[in-house]
Design goal:
Length: 467
C-alpha cells in the first residue's frame, strides 16, 4: 500500500495492523493466505498500471455511451410510443433513483472482493440491459413502464462503477500515481458523451433509435468479457458468497469504527466538498443548454454542447499529471489536494460569475469551457483524497460521498429551475452555484488532510484487531 511505502518507518503500527488482520489459512484451501496477501497488499507495476488505465478509460467511456443512449433517443421514442413530456421525464429521471441506491453497496463489495471484479460483473449486466432495451420496449404492452423499469435498473447497475474505481485505485495504485489514473479514467465520461453524441446521432438518423442501444450495449459486454478474459485471466467464479463473508481487513469496519470515521473532520470535509462539487456540476450540466437557448436563440447547438467537453478532456488529464508531479517532487500531499480543489471550485467560480454580465456568444462559450475545464481538477482533489484518508474502505466511503452528491444535485437542479421561474434571471442561478462552491471549498481548505484516519491508533498494538 502506498501509505505504508511512503511512511513505513514512521507509522509502524499500520504495518502491525495490516499483518495481524490478515485471515489465517483455511483448512482445505491451499494457498489461501497467499492469495489474500497478493490481493490486498500488492500494487500494480508501472507498465501494468498503464494497461489498467487504458482499459478503465475505455470502460468509463462505454459507461457513458450506454448512459446517454436514452437521452439521445428519447425524442424519437416519445414520438413512436406517444409519450408526453411528463412521461419522458419519468423515464429519464428513473435512472437517478436507481443510481443513488447502489453507491455504498458497490463500494462495500469492492472493498471485500476487489473493485475489478465488481466492474466486470456490473458492466456485463448494464451492457446486457442496454442491448435488450429495444426488445423490452417492443414486446411490452406498456413501453412506458418497461422503459422506466429498465432505466431504474440501469441506475442500480451503473451506480457501483465509481465506488469500485475508488476501491480499486486505493488498493492497487501508489499514492503518487493516483491523481493521474483517476483523472484519466474520469475523462472517459467526457469522451463517452462526445462519442455517443456524434456516432449515436448518426446511427439514430440512419438506422433508427434501436441501433444506438444495440451497439453501445454489445460493445460494453465485449469490454467486460475482454477484461475478464485477459486481465483477470478468466478466473471464476468471479464473486462468491464466501469471498463476501471473508474479504479481509479492507472492509471489516464495524458500526463503531464507521461512526468514529465519520466524526473525523477530514472525512466530513471531503464529503461536504464532494457534495458541493457534484451539486454545482449537475446544475451546470442540466441548465447550460437552456441558458444558451434563452440567451442566444440563434446560436448553433453543437458549439455549446461539444466545445466545453472537448476542453474538459485535456484539462482532466493535465490536472492528474500536475498532481502526481508535485507529489513526486516532495510536496505535501494534503496541500496538493487542496490546490487542485481550489482550481476546481474557486477558479471555476470566477468564470461562472462572468456569465452574469452581458457577453457575446463566443465569450459565453469560452467562460463555460473554462468553468467545466477547471471543474475537472476535482478528480485530483476530493476524488483521490478519500483514498488517502481511508484506503481500507475507500469504495464504501466514496459511495457515501457520491450518494450525498447525487441527492443534493437533483435538489439543486430543481431549486435552480424555481429561481429561474421566479426571478426571470440567470444571475441568481450562477450566484447560487458560486456560493455553494465557495462553501465546499472553504470547508475543504480548513479541514482536509491526507493522513490515514481509518485506523484507530489506540487499538493497533493489540492482537486480533480487525479494522
Amino acid at each position: 500500500m502506498a501509505v505504508i511505502q511512503k511512511h513505513g518507518k514512521k507509522h509502524s503500527p499500520d504495518l502491525v495492523c495490516q499483518k495481524e488482520s490478515a485471515p489465517p489459512d483455511r483448512t482445505g484451501v491451499p494457498g489461501g493466505h497467499k492469495k489474500w496477501s497478493e490481493h490486498n497488499n500488492t500494487t500494480w507495476s508501472r507498465p501494468m498500471a498503464r494497461v489498467w488505465t487504458g482499459v478503465l478509460l475505455l470502460g468509463t467511456c462505454l459507461l457513458y455511451c450506454a448512459r446517454v443512449a436514452m437521452p439521445i433517443c428519447a425524442v424519437s421514442m416519445a414520438e413512436q410510443f406517444k409519450w408526453s413530456k411528463r412521461e419522458s421525464g419519468m423515464v429519464l429521471g428513473s435512472f437517478f433513483w436507481g443510481y443513488c441506491f447502489t453507491q455504498v453497496f458497490g463500494g462495500y463489495v469492492s472493498d471485500r472482493v476487489g473493485g475489478e471484479k465488481v466492474l466486470v460483473l456490473s458492466a456485463a449486466a448494464w451492457g446486457s440491459m442496454t442491448a435488450f432495451t429495444p426488445i423490452l420496449a417492443h414486446f411490452c404492452s406498456q413501453p412506458i413502464f418497461s422503459m422506466t423499469l429498465a432505466r431504474f435498473l440501469m441506475g442500480l447497475l451503473q451506480g457501483v462503477h465509481y465506488p469500485s474505481l475508488a476501491s480499486l485505485c486505493s488498493q492497487k495504485v501508489v499514492e503518487s500515481d493516483r491523481g493521474f489514473l483517476m483523472s484519466t479514467v474520469a475523462s472517459g465520461s467526457y469522451l463517452g458523451t462526445l462519442v455517443i453524441g456524434g456516432a449515436g446521432s448518426l446511427m439514430l438518423d440512419l438506422y433508427g433509435w434501436q441501433s444506438v442501444f444495440y451497439v453501445s450495449g454489445l460493445l460494453s459486454v465485449l469490454w467486460a468479457y475482454c477484461m475478464w478474459k485477459y486481465l483477470l485471466k478468466g478466473e471464476g467464479p468471479i464473486i462468491t458468497l464466501e469471498s463476501l463473508g471473508s474479504g479481509g481487513s479492507h472492509s471489516k469496519l464495524s458500526k463503531r469504527h464507521w461512526l468514529r470515521l465519520l466524526r473525523q473532520p477530514a472525512v466530513c470535509a471531503v464529503i461536504v466538498a464532494h457534495l458541493c462539487t457534484a451539486s454545482t456540476f449537475f446544475t451546470l450540466l442540466s441548465w447550460l443548454p437552456t441558458f444558451f437557448k434563452d440567451t442566444f436563440p440563434d446560436a448553433k447547438g453543437w458549439v455549446f454542447n461539444v466545445v466545453p467537453w472537448l476542453v474538459s478532456i485535456p484539462s482532466s488529464l493535465f490536472s492528474g499529471f500536475l498532481s502526481d508531479h508535485l507529489i513526486g517532487q516532495g510536496y505535501d500531499t494534503a496541500s496538493v489536494r487542496k490546490m487542485m480543489q481550489f482550481f476546481s471550485m474557486g477558479v471555476s467560480s470566477v468564470f461562472t460569475l462572468l456569465l452574469c454580465g452581458n457577453t457575446t456568444f463566443a465569450w459565453a462559450v469560452a467562460f463555460v469551457s473554462a468553468t467545466m475545464g477547471f471543474t475537472t481538477f476535482s478528480h485530483s482533489g476530493v476524488s483521490v483524497n478519500v483514498q488517502d484518508l481511508a484506503p481500507s474502505c475507500a469504495g464504501a466511503l466514496f459511495g457515501v460521498m457520491n450518494t450525498c452528491g447525487a441527492f443534493s444535485g437533483v435538489l439543486m437542479v430543481y431549486f435552480s429551475g424555481y429561481l429561474i421561474e421566479t426571478t426571470g434571471s440567470w444571475t441568481s442561478v450562477f450566484a447560487l452555484i458560486t456560493t455553494v462552491n465557495l462553501l465546499g471549498l472553504c470547508t475543504f481548505l480548513a479541514f482536509a488532510e491526507a493522513r490515514r484516519v481509518d485506523i484507530d491508533p489506540s487499538k493497533v498494538r493489540h492482537a486480533n484487531i480487525h479494522i
